[in-house]
Amino acid sequence: MALTLEITSSASELLNGETATFTFNFSEELVLNETSAFTSSDISAKTEDGISLGNFSDLQQNETDPTIYTAKFTPTENLIASGNVYIAFNSVRTVSGVGWENRDALSPVSVITKTIYSLSNSEGTSDAITLAEGTEDSAKPITFKVSRSGDTRAAGSVNWNVIADNSVSTTVALADASDFSPEATQLPGGVVNFAENQTDQTITVNISQDKIYEANEIFRLTLSEASTTNGSTSEIPAEQSSIDVTLTTDDPDTIAPVITSGDKAGADGFIQENSHHNEIIYSATATDTTDQILTPSSANVTFSLKEENFNSQNDSELFSIDELTGDVTLPFDPDFENPRDAGSNPDIADNIYGFIVVATDPAGNTAEKQVSLEVQDIQLAPIATSPSRVSINENTGAPQPIYTTQIEDYPYPMMYGLKDVNDSERFTIDVSTGIVSLKPTEFPDYETKNSYNFTVTLNGEEGNSEQAVALTINNVDEAAAITGNLTASTDEDTSVTGKISATDPEGLSDGSYFSIATNNSPDNGTASINRESGAWVYSPSANFHGSDDFTVTVTDDGGGTTSQLISISINPTPDAPVISGDLSGTGLPFIGDPEKDQPIRGTIEVTDPDNRIGTSSSFKLVEGSSPTSTGGAAAISEETGYWSYFPQKDYRGPDTFAVQITDATGSTTEQTILISVDDPATNESAAIGGDISGQGEEDSTTPITGTLTALDVEGLTSDNIYSISRAASNGDASIDASTGTWSYSPKADFSGTDSFTVSVTDDQGGTTDQDISITIGGVIDPVSTPDLTNDSGRSSTDNITNATNPSFSGSADSGADVEVRITTSGNPNTSTSTFSLVGVANSLGVWNLTLGDDVALTDGTYTVTATSTIDGETATSDPLTITVDTTSPVITSGATPTGGDDTPGSQSIIYKTVANDASPLPLKFSLKPDNDDDAAAFTINPDSGDIRQNSQQAIEVKTDYAVTVVATDAAGNADEQLIALTRDDLGQSAPQSTDQTPTFAATPSQPASSPSSGGAANESAPSFEAITLETSAGFEKSQSGDRILAKAPRGDVSIPSSQTEKLKVLESADDGIEIELTDTLIDLDLTSRSSNVVFGGRKLKSSTVRFEEGLTADLVSTAELVEKTSFLMTEGKDKATFNSGVIKKSTIEAGGGKDDILIGEDATLTNKTMVDLGSGKDKLTIEGQVKKAQIDLGDDNQKDKVFVDSLDLITKKLVIKSFGQKDKLVIDGETYNKTAIEEEDQRIGKIRVRFLDATTNGSSNDDDSSDITSVIASNGFDFL
C-alpha cells in the first residue's frame, strides 16, 4: 500500500509577526537512521514562481504516535503571496519498506506581511487628470483616492506632496503656488492618516480660479514616506505613487493688449549726439484684458521690435528691447554728422530714428506703436585719454619733455595750451603735439620741490576741454660730493696717508660712512680708512713701485653709495741688500782654558734685489755694536762674511753684535747677530725686541698691530712662545703664539693710554714679560640738533615761543665744550648778527644752555646751531629754526553779543569772537576759567570762537551774565575780552522765582536744567558741536575749556580738543583700556584704574600715562614712536612690554615691587630714554636696539637683573646707574656681578656701569635731566 501524508495547519493565512504550526500525519511509521531521516530542511513553502513564503523549524515526532510530526512555520517579512507546502524527495522510507509516492503540492498557505499604499483619482480609473480652470472666486477642488492593502490591522500614514519641476515636464508650463491659492508661497502637501483596519482615504486639492489668461499648466501629486504603527513594512508601488494633473483654460483670449507708453523716445523725443550708448531711451508699457477677465493688467505681456524691410521710417534693427520690461536701449553712439537712420541713406537720413514696439499677450494677441527719436547736434569737445598723474626722477636735467597729451579720435582741427594756474609758468607745451616740457631753468630736484601741478587745455573746433595733471618728482639717491686727498705719492716700501671728506643730500649722520670693500682693495698693497673721519692709510707691497689704486665707498643715511678712486704713485728707491745665513749662534761659556774654550762662529750671506752685489761689496761690524757691555768680542771677514764671537770668561746669557753689508751702489743693510751663551745648569731671561708700543684713533675699525722678537739661550722652538699674561684695561688684545704678531682694538668711545703684558716662554718653561703700551687719540662725536626747551604755546614741538631768552638742550661728547650760536642775519627786527652761548656737556654728554636775561630776542625767525669741541676737534649740528613771537592777538569783536544766524536759545551762537594776530597761524579760543563769572553756563568752539549756551532752560535764573573769552596764538600770547550778556541775548523767559538756587552743568555733555515758562522741560542739548573723539560705549565724553575728557570706570583720558581725530579710546576684552593712535598725538593724559593698558598705531608725544595707586600694571605698547612721554606705575608686581617702535626721550617709571620690563626685538631705546626700576627685585630684558639710554636700578640693592640679548644691540651708549652688590647684568648669557664689572673697568662694550655708592641720591655729577623726562609719582594723582 502506498505511503500517504496528510498536512494540516493552525492557520491558513499568516500576517506580520504571526507563526503557524503544521502537522504532518504519515500513513506509516518512517525509518529514522543516519542515512534516512525526516527533518525541517525537507519541508518548504513557496509560490508557483519559486518565491519562498517562509521557513520551517522545530520538527518534532509525536511521542505516542510515531507517524505524526509537527513543525513551526515563520512567514517571510515584506511579502504578500500564496503558495503551497512541499516535501522534498529524500531517502525517507517506512518501516514496512513502502515507498512514498505523493511528493508534490500537499497543502496551500497564504502570507500577508506588509502594507501597500496606492494613489488613484476619485474614480480610481486614471493616472492623469485634465481640469479646466475657471474665473470664479471660489476654488475648484480635485479629489484623489489613497488606498492601502495587505496588513491593515495597525494604524498608518503616508505623506503627499504637489511637485512642479522639470521632472514633471519640460514641454508644458509648470503650475506654481498661486494656482492653488492667491496667498500661497509654496506648493501644497500633507499627511494621510489611516485608522486600524481602514483601507481607503481621500486627498482634496483646491485649484484657485485663474483670472489671467495663460497656457496649459501641469503638476504632479505624489505619495511618499509610508509607515504603520506596528512596524510592519510599508510599500508604495511606483506605478501607483503619483498622478499628473493638467490645468487648462476655459475659453481662448481674443482681446489684444493696449500699449500705454507714448510715441516719443528720449527726453520728449530728443537726445544729443554721442550719448546714450547702451542706455535706456524708451520704456514700453502695456495692459491686457481677456474675454473672461476684463480688468486691465500688465502681467504676462511681452515686448519686441517690429522689423520691416524697405521702410525708411522704421529703424528697429538699430535698437534692442527687453521682452519682459519693455526697456529699449541704443547700442551705439549716434553721430549727427553721420546719421544711421533710413538705412544710412544720405539722401533721406535726417537724424530722426523710428522703431515699432510690439506688445504680445499670452494668447498671442499683439498691439503695435510707432515711436520716434530725434538726434540733436552738439559741439564736440576733445577728450583727453592720457593719465592725470606722471612722475620723473630728480636731477634728470632741464629742459625735458615730461608729459604727452593723448586724446580720443577727434575729427576736427585743434590746438593744445597751458592754463594759467598752479605751476604753469614752469612749463612749456607744443601747441601741435601736446608735449609738455620743463623750462630750461626748472631743474627737477626732490629736496627743492617734489610735486608740480598744471592744466592742459584742449581747444577744438567743436568745443574745448581741460586735463589737470600732477607731476611727482621721485627722490633718487644723489651721489656724495667727495673732496680731499684723492691722489698721493710715496716711495717704495713707504706708507702714505691722506684724508677725504664728503657731503651728501641724503645725510651722513650715523658716524660710519667711509669703507673700502674687499674687491676694491689695492692690487699691490693694503689700504684702510677711518669709517667716520675719512683718514686713510696706504702701504705698498714690499719692493713694489709703480701705480696702484683703491676705491672708497661713501654710504649715506638712505643706504645710497658713492665710489671714489684713490690713486697712488710709488717711486722706486734703491733696495738695501738682504742678509741671510748664520744670523745667530749658541755656545758654552768660556772658563779660561784656551784648549777648551771655543768661539761661536758663522757665515752670513747676502743678496741684493737690485742685483748690485759685486767686488766692491764689503762686510764690517757696525760701529759701536761690538758686545763690549758683556765683555765679549766679535770679528768679521770683510770679504767673506765669516764671523766669530768670543764671550767674556764666565759670562752666561744672550748677547748681540751688528754687521753691515755695503753693495756697489753704496746701499747698506745692517743685521743683528744673536748670541746665546748657555749654561745648561741655569735659566736665563729672554731678550725681547720689536714693536713694544702702538697708537691709533678712537672707535677705529682698524686694529693696532705689531710684532715682537725674542731670543733666549734656553731656546724658543715650540709653537707656543708668546701669550697675553695681563689683559688690556680699555680694549681687547691678542697675540699669535708662534710669530709674536699682536693686535689691539680699543673699546667704544675710549681715548687715552692703555697697556697689556706679553709673556715669552722658552723651551725650559722659563718666562720673560714685556709690557706693550698703547696710545689712542680722541675723535669727537657728532653733536645733536638743539631742542628748544621752552617751546611755549599750544604745541611743544612747533619751535614757536614767546620767550625772549629761550633755553636749548642737546647731546655731545661727555665733557665737550659746547657753543650755541643763534644767527639773526636777515632778520629785520635786530641789528645783532649772532648770539653765542657756551657751556660744557655733562658726564652723559647732555648740555643745557639759556640765553641770559641781559639779552632779549625780538620777534622774528632765528637759526640755531650747536658746536662741540674736544681735544681740539669740533663738530657742528644740523640747524634748528625757531620763531620768537611776543605779540599778543587783539580781540576786535567787542564786549556785547554779536550772535549768529541761528534763533536765540539752546545751541544758538550768541557771540562770535573775532581777533587779529600778526602771525598767519590759527588762533585758539577758550573761556577764562576760575574767573568768578558765568563761564560754566557757556561753551566756546576752540577753532572758530563761537560761544553757545549750554542749555535753553535757564542754567541760572538771572538777569545778566558775564564771561571772559581768551584768544591764544601759537606762541602762547593771549588777549582777553569781557562779554556782558542779558536774558534777551539768550532768549530766556522771565524768572519763575526770585530766590531760585542756581544750578550749573558739570560739563557741556551733561547740561543742567531749570524750569521754563514754555517748551519742553528737561530738554538737553549737546555742546556747541558733537565731540569727535571716537570711544567705546562705556566712556562718557565731555569738554572742559580746550580739552576733551573721556571717563569710564576703568580710567580717564584727557586730550586737547584739536587732537580728537588722532586716536580711538576703546575698552579691551580684558576690562582694560586700548589706545589706537591713528596719527601723531600730543599731550595725552591717561589715568588708568585698570591694570591692562595697550597702546598701538602711530606716534605718541609729550604725554603722561599713570596707573592708579595700588594697581598692578600690565602695559603693552606697539606704537610707532613714543617721545617725551612718562609711564608711571606704582607699588606692585608691574609689567611693561614695548614690543616695537622707537622710545625716545621718555621715562618708564616702574615704582616699587617685583617689576618686569621688556624691550622687544623690534623696539629701540634712544635719545637718553630713562628706565627707572625703583625699589624691589626687578627685571629688565633688552631684546631690541639701544642707541642712548639710561637705566636706574634704584638705591635698594634688591637683586635687580638686567638681561641684554647681545652686546651688538648697544650701538651708541647704555648707562646703568645704582648697580649694587646683589644686582646682576647678563649679556649674551654671561653673568656679570659687581666684581666682574670692576675687572672690566666698569665698561663692557658700550655699556657703562655706575655703582650704587657713586650714584646715590644727591649726586649732581651726572645730571641728565635735559633730555630725560624723569617723573617720580607721589601718592595720589599728579597731573604733570
Query: Strand percentage, roughly?
Result: 35-45%
Question: How many strands appear in the DSSP assignment?
Answer: 101
Average pLDDT for all residues? 82
Uncertain stretches: 900-906, 952-956, 988-1024, 1254-1280
Question: Main sheet, how many strands, which sense, barrel?
Answer: 26 strands, mixed
The count of helical stretches stands at 2
Please, could you describe this protein's structure?
The chain has a 26-stranded mixed beta sheet that branches. An eight-stranded mixed beta sheet has the order 1-3-6-5-4-7-8-2, with no helix packed on it. Strand 55 and strand 56 (741-746) form a beta hairpin. The chain folds into ten domains: 5-112, Immunoglobulin-like, CATH 2.60.40; 115-248, Immunoglobulin-like; 258-376, Cadherins (Immunoglobulin-like, Sandwich), CATH 2.60.40; 389-474, Cadherins (Immunoglobulin-like, Sandwich); 481-554; 578-677, Sandwich (Immunoglobulin-like); 687-777, Sandwich (Immunoglobulin-like), CATH 2.60.40.10; 787-884, Immunoglobulin-like, CATH 2.60.40.2550; and more. The protein is mostly beta strands and 1280 residues long. The protein is extended.
